[in-house]
Amino acid sequence: MAEFDGQAILITGPKGGLGTHVTRMFLAAGANVAGVSPAIQASDFPDARFLALPAELSSADAARAVVEKTMRQFQRLDALVHLVGAFAGGKPVAETDDATFERMLDVNLRTAFYMMRAAIPVMRAAGTGRIIAIGSRAAIEPQPTMAAYSASKAALVALVRSVAMENKDRGITANIILPETMDTPANRAADPKADFSRWVNPRQVANLALWLASAGAAQVSGAAIPVYGAEL
Fold it and tell me: What is the spatial distance between Cα 115 and Cα 57, in angstroms, rounded to a whole number?
């Protein structure tokens, strides 16, 4: 995709089961990519257009620093692709401890809020930008013993839609992808007896993220897009 040549894409969680596909696809499409992860290294994606940004996105200051470093390196920020997330479940609400609830809010919601709040002013100044987040089917179809996770992902949907509406006249789109269980090494390890053939191929989700960042998706904003695979 020639349209990504020279563009700057900021990806959080670039090394995960989904993130690896997303990062490689944007690099292959010609984009400059800044990848944020606590242990990221340039050697993880040996490409001159890849910028490794080791960081914990646990505070507003950390998020601002990541955006500032991206701007110093590339002088622009065309898209934020927020992939950071985690799952915890297995207990009903009455038995869910505070630490689990707070962790789900921290990882699945607060990091997204910090990153979007840091990126939006840069995009508004440029008059263009794409914000893409990864949610979960559980955000709109919660299941028993997954309340903390589902609530954090549902709040993420609301955050993305709010961002879309607040910036609809500034050339910025914001969308969230809602996959079913993805076929990643981590998920296979967590559920080794599952039928992996029914899980979502992460490359399909990565392809959708790439399209949402493209000019072809300029009129798509505020969408919560399901990717359920065989579990429809």
Answer: 8
Amino acid (one-letter) located at 43? S
pTM assigned to the model: 0.96
Helix spans in 29-174 (H): 60-74, 98-105, 111-126, 147-166
- Residues (pLDDT < 50) of the chain are 1
What is the three-class DSSP state of 55?
A: coil
Residues 6+ apart with CB under 8 A from 189: none
| Four-residue CA torsion sign, 181, 185, 190, 194 | positive
Give the N- to C-terminal CA distance of the chain in Å, as an integer: 30
Residue 111 makes CB contacts below 8 A (sequence gap 6+) with: 12, 57, 58, 63, 82, 84
**Which domains are seen in the chain, by residue range?**
2-231 (3.40.50.720)
In the numeric block, the tokens 């429809």 are attached to 232
pLDDT tens-digit map of 32-42: 999 999 999 99
Question: What CA–CA distance (Å, rounded) separates 166 from 135?
Answer: 20
Determine the pLDDT at residue 129.
Answer: 98
